[in-house]
Structures are given as C-alpha cells and as structure tokens.
Design a protein that fits this description.
- By secondary structure, the chain is mainly α.
- It is built from 8 helices and no strands.
- The longest helix is centred in the middle third of the chain and has 21 residues, at 101-121.
C-alpha cells in the first residue's frame, strides 16, 4: 500500500505552484495541466505514470492544447489532459472493457471534473471557456493572437483545473480506486 509523503492539501498546493511554473515555461494548457498534476502527485508519493512514459506522452499531450492543435474548436486542453491524468490514475485495463470498470471511471470523470467545468464555464469547449473566462475567444492558430492571449492569460483555467483534478485523484486514492503502475 502506497503512503503519501505529504498531506492532500500540500499536494494540491504543489500542483497549483507547478501549474504557474509550467505555464511560464511551456505555455500550453494541455501540457502544463498534465505535467503539474502528474509531477505534484509524484512529489506527494503517488506515481500514476513512470517518468519515462510521461516524457513519451509529452508531445502527444502538447497537441491537445487550446482546443486541439490551437484551433479552439475542441475540448479545452486543460480538460482533456486532466481527464487523461484521471484515467491513468483509475487504471482502466484493456480487459476491463466488458465489465463495469470503464463505466465507473467515466462516471467519475463526468461527475467530477466535467461537472465542475459545466458549472463554472457552461462548456468544456475551448472557445466557450475562453469567452466565459475572458469575455472573448482568440484564434490561437494566429501568431499575433496567440501572443496577445499569452500576455493576458495568467494560466487561463490551468491552475483551477490542476487543483480540481489533483483533488479528484487524491479522493479516488483515499477510496482505494487508484491503480498504480507495476
């Protein structure tokens, strides 16, 4: 049985700090959100994914940013990458597709992180979230608009999503629902 090295509150605080640090370093909501969640949990004693796999996933997660490849048309990158982290923590096996494992994991995601987004932003789509958060949406495929966006974003939804997702994973850990890699 894994024992956490830090309290739940300390781990969530660390995730928030890493979100700020990573947003300054990497910019994109997808990669910043994912890395902050995974690295804060690892710091806290809960490794949901090995470091070498985290590195391998990084480039794929980058293209989730800003509604998939900066189009704004898809799911918010912070949502997509937080759902990925939650899914990794819940450890849905290939052989678990026929039983209730997948349905339980989907219900966990739907009833937690997605519900929080719908309550706060009324949507999980990037452009909708931007409009709710900033009052307008940007075309982030444009270098000029991306620069304008990055100057004012201060993390957009990254920090809040990181805190929510980290707390959800830690809650699931407390319930015995987190499956750690072998």
């Amino acid at each position: 049985m894994v024992k956490l090295k830090h309290t739940k509150e300390e781990i969530i605080k660390k995730a928030d700090e890493l979100a700020v640090e990573y947003e300054a370093k990497y910019k994109g909501c997808g990669q910043c959100t994912f890395l902050a969640i995974v690295d804060a949990l690892r710091w806290g004693g809960l490794e949901i994914i090995p470091e070498d796999m985290e590195e391998r996933l990084f480039s794929g997660i980058c293209v989730l940013t800003a509604g998939v490849s900066m189009t704004g048309d898809g799911t918010c990158g912070a949502v997509a990458s937080s759902v990925l982290a939650i899914g990794l923590a819940l450890g849905i096996p290939r052989e678990g597709q026929g039983d209730r494992t997948l349905r339980r994991a989907c219900a966990t995601v739907r009833d937690t992180i997605l519900d929080k987004y719908y309550q706060e932003y009324r949507s999980i789509l990037c452009k909708d979230v931007q409009r709710k958060f900033f009052g307008k949406a940007w075309d982030l495929t444009s270098d000029k608009m991306s620069l304008e966006f990055l100057i004012i974003t201060k993390g957009c939804t990254i920090m809040q999503t990181v805190k929510w997702a980290t707390e959800i994973i830690l809650d699931e850990f407390e319930k015995g629902n987190v499956k750690l890699p072998a």
